[in-house]
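Appendix B. One record, verbatim.
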Amino acid sequence: MQHFQIVVSPVAVRRALSATGRALGVNLYRTIATVGIASTALWTSGCYSYAVRPVSEVSQDATVTADINDVGRVALGERVGPEVMQVEGKVVQRSDTSVRLLVSHVTYLNGNTEEWQGQELGLRVQDVKMVTQRTFSRSRTALLIGAMAVGLVATILGLHFLGITSGDPNNDKGNPPPPES
């Protein structure tokens, strides 16, 4: 029976620890980037609520989404295209019988979405099934800020628990490798 002896040099150990540290750093970077992207998405959508309103009650300069009914599809067919399902835009004028929008997006029944550059479009009350108005929500904003603060604290505590940061600015890069012999 033959016995093998494995000899590990200090240089090999240092390289392995360095590679492990780089991998941990890359994973940490990816995690922080993912959390940042998710936070941004929540921040941009989480601070608003979408309330259903009658066409006559939408606010001037508000961003609204109008679901178009069958009558509206026929009436808007030449200007917007057949099979229009939804129109999104900013209210520039409203009355009891109609609303004028600077259109930013149009969604069709087949699921396709078309981006518009603020062209003006008039919608009659009888063309619209439902209008939702985007409004700022203080409660959702407060909840989102609280959740982000909890996430930040959890990340910091997690980094400290994993030993990535010790709280000592002189030792945040980890322990130095053992001296070569």
